[in-house]
Every structure is written in C-alpha cells, then in structure tokens.
Amino acid sequence: MIIDAGHWLIEVRRHRPLVHNMTNLVVANVVANALLAIGASPVMAYAHEEVQDMARIAGALALNMGTLTPDLITGMLLAGKAAEEARVPVVFDPVGVGATPYRVQAADKVATQLRLTVLKGNAGEIGGMAGAGGTVSGVDAAAVASGLAGAMVQYARHHHNVVVATGEQDFVTDGQTLWILNNGHPWLARITGSGCMLTGIIGAFLAVADKQREAIPFAEACAAAITCFNVAAEKAAEGAQGPGTFAARLFDALNLLDPDEVNRMARVECRQV
Amino acid sequence: MIIDAGHWLIEVRRHRPLVHNMTNLVVANVVANALLAIGASPVMAYAHEEVQDMARIAGALALNMGTLTPDLITGMLLAGKAAEEARVPVVFDPVGVGATPYRVQAADKVATQLRLTVLKGNAGEIGGMAGAGGTVSGVDAAAVASGLAGAMVQYARHHHNVVVATGEQDFVTDGQTLWILNNGHPWLARITGSGCMLTGIIGAFLAVADKQREAIPFAEACAAAITCFNVAAEKAAEGAQGPGTFAARLFDALNLLDPDEVNRMARVECRQV
Amino acid sequence: MIIDAGHWLIEVRRHRPLVHNMTNLVVANVVANALLAIGASPVMAYAHEEVQDMARIAGALALNMGTLTPDLITGMLLAGKAAEEARVPVVFDPVGVGATPYRVQAADKVATQLRLTVLKGNAGEIGGMAGAGGTVSGVDAAAVASGLAGAMVQYARHHHNVVVATGEQDFVTDGQTLWILNNGHPWLARITGSGCMLTGIIGAFLAVADKQREAIPFAEACAAAITCFNVAAEKAAEGAQGPGTFAARLFDALNLLDPDEVNRMARVECRQV
Question: Pairing relation of β-strands C170-173 and C177-181?
C-alpha cells in the first residue's frame, strides 16, 4: 500500500476541520454537502470585511475562481495572505483558466501573489498554468500525460508547492514524487461541481496534514483526498441510473466511506521523479 | 395536543404565501425547493432597486446572512423597513454570528435597526445574540439549554418578538410561553441548508398567522413550522441511505406531509414562563 | 411527425455546444447539470471583464434575470452585443417580470437594446412583455391561450424573433408558425429552476440550428428543446415519489433520453398563422 488513504479519512473525521471555501455560485451547495458528508466542516465567506478573520480560524482555505469577479479575486488575495501568515494551507483551483484572457490574468495574479500550498485543476487548466500547453485534443493521451506530468514537476519544484491535475488519471506531485491515481467514474464528468467538491475535500485533508513536516504530507494529503473521493464515486455509481441519482448517492457514499475499503479499492502508483 | 401543527400546514397549502427570501448563495436552491415542496411560493430578490417592492407584496420576509456582504445587509435593511411598514412579518437568521467580528456587527445592525418578528438561529448563534454566551462545548447540555432558554425569554420580552433556537431540541418563545420541540433527525446536521430551509418555512407559516392577534400566533407559527419540518425529516430518513438520498427525500416528504400524521408524530412540550 | 425532436437531440449530443449562461444564483447548479445531462457543455460567467470573450466563443448565450442586479443587466448587455456581432444566438428569460417595476424596466432594457433570438418565459411573463396582460386568474384558459398566442405572434413579427411561452401547454412562434406543445409533468412546477433549465437547454438547441436559414430553424429548435425536456420530465416522474426524487431522476432521464422515444412520445401541434 503506497498511501494509507483510509487513515487520512479517519483523521479528517476525527478532527472535523473547518474549511473556508471561496468557491463559485454554481457549486457552493454541493461543495458544502461533500465536505459535510465526508466529515469536515465547511464555511463559505466572501466579504472583504471578514475573509481574513475566517481564513485565520480555518484549517484550510479553498479558492475556486469558477464565477470570478474583480471583487472575488481581491477577496481571495486578502484571505490567502491571512492564511499564509497563520500557516493555514491554501488550495487554488483556477477553473476555466484559458477560456478568456481575464481568467488567465486572474489566475496568474492569485498564483503569483499568494504562496499556494496546492495548485489544483483539470489537465487542461494545469497544462495552461504549468506551461504544458492548454489544448490536448487529437494528441496521444499518454504523451500528453507525460508532457503534463513533466511540466507539473517543474512547476512544483519552482514554486515549492504541490500540483494536482485531474482527469481519467489524476496526477499529484511535489516535485520529488509523482502519484498517479486511477480511481474514479465517468459520471463525475457529467455532474457540475465534481472537481470543485474535490478542491474542498483536498482542503479538508490538507488541514489534517502534519504541519511540522514540509512538502511531503501535503502531496500525500492530496493523493489521499483524491483516492477517497474517487472511490466514493465508484461506490455511488453502483445502482445509480444516471447523473442525477449518482449525485445524490455520491453524498451517501462519502458519508458511508469505509477506510479499509478505500485502501482495498485504491489504485495508486507512485514514482520518484 | 398543544399545537395543531397539521392545521397550520393546511393553511399554508391553502394560501400558498409568497415568501421573499434574501438568503445565502449556498442554499438558495434548497430553500426555494423546500418552500415549493411544502406548498408555499418562494421568491428571491436582492437588488436594492426592488427589495422594498418585493417585501411589500410578500406574505413574509426571510433574511439569512450566511454569505453576507455590505450590499446584502443594506438590502436587508431596505427590505425589512418596507416589510415593517406594510405589516409583513420578518424572520432573521444570523448565520454564523460569532465566527467573525464582522458577522457580529452585521447581525447587531439588522437586529437593532429592524423590528424583527422572529430571531431564529441555532443554539450557538442565539446564545451569542441573546447573551447566553456562544460556547457550549463541555458544559452539561441540560444546563446550557436552561441557560439558553432563560436568555431567550429575556430577549423576547425586551424586544417584543419571538426567539427560536434550533438544535437536538428546538426552543421557541415569545417571552410568555416556551415551546420545547423534540422532533427531527441527525441527518439534518449532515446536509447544508437545513437550518436555512427552516427559516424560509417559518416565513411561510408566519405569513398565514392571524395578524390581528399579537405575539402569540407568531410563536405558535414557529413551533408549527419547526414541527412540520422535523417530522418531514423523520419521514425522509426512512429508507434513505445517507445524506444525499435523505436530502432528495426531504422534498418528497415535505410535499407528501400529512396533517394528521404531523399531529400524531409531534413531540411538543409547552411551559408558561 | 411535425418536428423531428429526436434528431435535434442527436445533433446536440454530437456537437456538445458550449452554452454561456448568465443565470440566477438560485438555479445555476441545476441549469449546469441539465445541460451536462442532455449532452451540452455549460459555462457560467458574469464578470464584465470577460463576458464578451465568453459569449463570442459560445454556441449560444442564455440570459436569465431571476436574481437581477444593475451589474448583471450591464453584463448581459455587454455579452448580448458581443454575441450579436459574432452571430451567436441569444435567448432571454425575463424571470418574474411584472413582480416589481424594476423588473419591468430591466426586461425592457434587455429586450430593446439587444436583438434577441428568442424571448422565453412563462405565460404570465410573456403576456406581460408581449402586451397580452399579465394576469390570467379567473379567465377562461382557452381564451387566455388564444389571446396570449395572438400577442406572441404580433411580438415575433414586430421583433423578427422567436417567442416562447411555457405553461400546461407551451407555445412557440416565429410569427408565421405556431407550435403548441403538450408534453410535460405537473412536478416541473414543484421544483425550482425547471423553467431556467429549459432556457439553458433551448440555448443548446439554438447552438446547433443551421444559421444559414433565418427564423425557421430557431423556432423549430425551441419546439424540439421543449419537447425533449418535457418528455424527460414525463420519464422522470415514473417511479418518483415526490419533487425531490423527481429532480434527481430528471437528470437521469435527460441523460438517458432516447431520440426515437422522444419522437414517439412527442405531442406537438403546428399551425400556420
């Protein structure tokens, strides 16, 4: 067993970490429900007047720019600086970066002005941010993955953080180790907010990472979070009849998730890079 | 039978009251669905340009500061003043008050500048607002409840309104009578927005309260609303496999809720104080 | 068979059109899920800094003023002008128009400053916009429908666009042809966002309309979109126990929707006017 994802799950449920989410208005509800279901404690707060206070008392700060505005970006920077000072880990999900010039600027601003613990997105988004090129269609998947993983490793080394790219396979790296995660279900791509839920859940796992050790546990926390979430998706798909019943059952599965079963079902590869 | 909650439910379904909700972006969808399911008519409106007009034509105004901003608070004050002038009842839910100084200020502003019909929150929030102290962990539950209920009674007498505190037991008081409500289900705490749905539903019940009589029917409306909602939760939990299927079934249960069954299942205590 | 709705569905699934939604915060989640379920690709973007860029790359722009603000209306005008220049079809849903003077002003502003491809609302909203009078209670339904349909035809001729009014029967007209659509289920009125989901789905169908031909295919696209959505609702209602399980099953049904079955179940009338 490469990572003990089940143990991470137990720790999340034991600590019930408070995750401060600044997420988009499309998915705020499902992000909160996913965090509640897995055993964490979500809070959503956006006002510039309070985001610093909220970030300081949180176990982690999860930033998601899905429905970004200038006000939201300013709020994220305020919250992120406060989190940094209070040694609260920060995960940033640059949703839709590359779709418009404004998204590119906004994501760059957040990624350069904050010291992110984790940069997390789908393969296209992370490829865009890490310089592997944003467009993947028509290219051999293995080559893309290889190119993507290489760019992620460089980015993680340069920024001293963890980089996560999701897709059919999920990649996590801290610049030294590369995790390749093979759980999940195609229906995750047929419901809105699956990636955003995972960003929140990564926040919960970061919150229980041992802050004494440096980069390693944060990357492991990400790999464990992704594995738990994706195993829950596999469980939820059993007996679901489509994306609607799958979405409802996903919260059930997160709630019922058994640590031992997570470890039995986990399909994780790990390479030193 | 101390209150005829089933009769209140019938009245809500008969009048289909329009409830103007200014609620948070995490739960707006489920609040609207809960109101539709129980037989009321929800509307969400936030623009300063229209909140006064909307509040005047509504049967009740339900204010929830979950994802508060300065703009939202200003809008709530505009809507609340208009509601007051039009004798439209107002329920205020100071979500998360105490978590940050800004939330304390904002809740105080709303509670002092508006004549609230009902102040409603969970035990920690109401304890904070009513002066019973916001922290409850490690203290004997009965003593806390007793301290909380006492503070609620004082607050209600001072402000001539109704105070509601939810939790394992729910308390409602108008300063003369104290209702102790014992229905509900633990899964309500595992989905986001259950408290916010209840705030909206309290609005619907306030809207059908006889406005000729003073404080009494509003408190009774709250006790009836809570009982109906919590009995629906008990029904929804039957056959649910977790918080996801429970949430879907909660709307079914609100829709199917039988007035006679509500009264049979109601576990209500009532004391003169 | 008057329209081949099943063929339209196949085209949507084949092209997976990107629909740029500027919708209200109550329903954004379910609109995104409905579009994903039927096979389209939703994006929500609101910032003035990016709405023009997003509208230009989208297959359609869907505007919904449910929780309108001055900022949102300004953003809609920016996006709508950009869409017009790029020949991207635009559907506008004036949610709640008539409820407040501000909504009337805002809807008029959008409808006069943009060249809308489709104006879509419920019977009361479209009656208000098209001049048939907004109040329908106590009036003979057939007469209202007749009056409504007449007003819609005049509006469509005057504005050279398509007008859609939903209700127990749904009406679509481009000023020459009137479609009367008879599918659907009463539970659609018991969940929030069913009309808003349909607005998004109409966007997806507009995106695959042949832009070479003028008004005709857009009206047909609307009739096909409504028929597909309403047949899915009929399927979803089978086995549902109330609005909550119905809502979950609606996404399943949109996902599973069979083109041949849509055509078999379609109840469509068509008249030259």
Answer: antiparallel
pLDDT at B138: 36
Q: Which domain holds residue C138?
A: 5-272
Identity of residue C76 = M
Q: Determine contact, residues C183/C257, Cβ cutoff 8 Å.
A: no
Tokens 């609260």 sit on residue: A88
| B245 touching A (Cβ < 8 Å) | yes
Upper half-sphere CA count for residue C213 (Cβ side, 13 Å): 11
Q: In this structure, are residues B191 and B204 in contact, taking their beta carbons and an 8 Å threshold?
A: no
Question: Which of these, C144, C86, C120, lies nearest to C225 by C-alpha position?
Answer: C120
Asked if C247 is an interface residue toward chain B (Cβ–Cβ < 8 A), one would say yes
Residue C185 phi/psi, 5-degree rounding, is: -150, 140
CA dist A137 and A144 (Å) reads: 10
Separation in Å, CA of B9 to nearest CA in chain A: 27
**3-state SS, residue A46:** coil
**Interhelix angle for C28-38 vs C215-237, to 10°?**
100
Interface touch A247/C33, C-beta < 8 Å:
yes
Could you give the percent of chain B with pLDDT greater than 70? 92
CATH of the domain at A72: 3.40.1190.20
Q: How do C41-44 and A177-181 pair as beta strands?
A: unpaired
Taking CA atoms, A10 is separated from A21, A205, A232, A256, B132, in Å, by: 22, 10, 15, 12, 34
Chain B within 8 Å of C101 (Cβ-Cβ)?
yes
If DSSP codes are grouped into helix, strand and coil, which group holds residue C22?
Answer: strand
b/e burial code for range A64-94 (CB count within 10 A of at least 16 → b): bbbbbbeebbebbbbbbbbbbeeebbbbbbb
Note whether C148 contacts A: Cβ–Cβ < 8 A: no
Cα B5 to the chain's mean position, in Å?
15
B249 with C243: Cβ contact below 8 A? no
pLDDT per position as a tens digit, B194-219:
999 999 999 999 999 965 455 458 99
> Taking CB atoms and an 8 Å limit, are A33 and B243 in contact across chains?
yes
Residue C266 to residue C7: CA distance in whole angstroms:
13
Check CB contact of A243 with chain C, cutoff 8 Å: yes
User: How many domains does chain C contain in total?
Assistant: 1
pLDDT tens track of chain C, all 273 residues?
Answer: 589 999 999 999 999 999 999 999 999 999 999 999 999 999 999 999 999 999 999 999 999 999 999 999 999 999 999 999 999 999 999 999 999 999 999 999 999 999 999 999 999 999 999 986 543 333 345 555 678 999 999 999 999 999 999 999 999 999 999 999 999 999 999 999 999 999 999 999 999 996 545 545 899 999 999 999 999 999 999 999 999 999 999 999 999 999 999 999 999 999 998
Average pLDDT over residues A36-60: 98
Rounded to whole angstroms, the Cα distance separating C74 from C12 reads 30
- Cβ distance B69 to B103 under 8 Å? no
**Angle formed at CA B199 by CA B193 and CA B204, multiple of 5 degrees:** 125
What are the chain A neighbours of C247 within 8 Å (beta carbons)? 244
Whole-number Å distance between alpha carbons of B26 and B28: 6
CA dist list (Å): A177 to A150, A218, A269, B265, C78: 12, 12, 10, 57, 46
